[in-house]
Design brief:
CATH superfamily of the largest domain: Vaccinia Virus protein VP39
CATH class of the largest domain: Alpha Beta
Radius of gyration: 22 Å
Helix content: 25-40%
Number of strands: 12
Shape: elongated
Length: 366
């Protein structure tokens, strides 16, 4: 088993399958206490250091050296660069790649995996007296010691993850050139959650709006405690009932997004939109519980009256399936639904990380 260190760990979603790869994360650092507490709950044997990486850096490096960590995974926050965010390139969070580069030098691991949005590669930073892109900086600072992958952008949907999620993956390997695994056939939403029973939203204004829904919810909870539909307003549910699979409510002639006074709201056809059964899910973001956010609504099934079922966002359980999170993910009892949805949206599909790591060498397949 190879000992590893995780930086910007969130709740450790990306690390869920690493023990299958002969990697044991023994040191982790996370800024926010709630996420660090979640991480400790999932990985009780890991040394989790909570706090700002700049303040905790020496403690992290000291422990990583004590445990002889030969593997480093880092997923620094990307909100300053993300397409889903404001894309503020002066955001201080964009500088968090710098302690990652320092840690590579100080820990001297054999293998490094850095994950972020594709915009990271072209982000310019000042490091070691040079002002250059992250990609050029890494090549300049580490190509004399590591093999660095040439192709650095992938889409998770090409590697067995039923979700379109473009990411930058930078691999540093002391022993051999590492590239991405071979692409695979795409897995559709239908293949992953199409066998689950239909269930409607819980209506804020009228809990009895859907006759018999209580029994359906009870059946869903037998599948998983996290397969419970979310609450939505009646006007949102009505518009999505009249929105076909793969389409946006903005395309409707009457049941389009409206304000409380009935006037039409402005927006893009990627919002108030149902997913497509016959394609991978769109990128699951931190706003996956918001019906008006990007492509979050269940695909639905056409009913006899011409409307569509499942006029709601996905349940946490459905999101877990599309994120390749195992069914037995040990979510702490204190974590509320909004928090769980957010940390999943911030995470990395564990199956993607597993396949990339297993492709690094035979030592990860023992």
């Amino acid at each position: 088993m190879i000992n590893g260190v995780s930086l910007f760990s969130n709740v450790g979603i990306g690390e869920l399958n690493l023990k299958k790869c002969n990697v044991n994360i023994v040191v982790a650092n996370e800024l926010k206490k709630d996420r660090a507490d979640f991480y400790k709950h999932i990985y009780p044997e890991c040394n989790v250091i909570t706090g700002d990486i700049f303040a905790c850096y020496n403690d992290v490096i000291k422990l990583a050296k004590e445990y002889n960590c030969k593997f480093l995974i880092a997923t620094p926050p990307c909100q300053g660069m993300s397409v889903a965010g404001k894309r503020n390139y002066s955001d201080k969070r964009n500088e968090l790649i710098i302690p990652v580069l320092n840690a590579i030098k100080d820990i001297d691991p054999d293998y490094v995996l850095i994950e972020n949005v594709p915009q990271l590669l072209k982000l310019k930073i000042k490091y070691n007296g040079h002002f250059d892109t992250v990609e050029n900086t890494i090549n300049r600072e580490f190509s004399n010691k590591y093999f660095i992958n040439k192709d650095k952008v992938l889409n998770a949907k090409d590697f067995g993850v039923p979700q379109s999620r473009k990411r930058a993956i930078i691999i540093l390997n002391k022993y051999r050139q590492s590239e991405f695994p071979e692409k695979e056939k795409e897995i559709t939403v239908k293949e992953v959650i199409g066998n689950l029973p239909s269930v409607e939203a819980i209506i804020d204004e009228d809990s009895n709006y859907f006759e018999g829904n209580d029994k359906k919810i009870a059946e869903c909870l037998k599948i998983s405690k996290w397969h419970r539909p979310i609450k939505h307003s009646l006007r949102h549910v009505e518009m999505m009932q009249h929105t076909p699979t793969g389409h946006s409510a903005f395309e409707n002639d009457y049941y389009y997004p409206k304000k409380l006074d009935g006037t039409r709201v402005s927006g893009y056809n990627t919002t108030y939109k149902r997913m497509n059964w016959d394609a991978p899910a769109p990128t699951i973001t931190m706003a996956n519980g918001v019906i008006s956010s990007q492509c979050n609504v269940h695909p639905g099934r056409k009913k006899a009256d011409g409307t569509y079922s499942d006029a709601r966002v996905l349940t946490i359980y459905e999101i877990m399936k599309l994120f390749t999170i195992p069914d037995d993910w040990n979510i702490p009892d204190w974590a509320n639904e909004n928090f769980i949805r957010k940390v999943i949206g911030e995470g990395v599909p564990p199956l993607l990380i597993e396949k990339i790591v297993k492709n690094l060498g035979d030592e990860f397949n023992e």
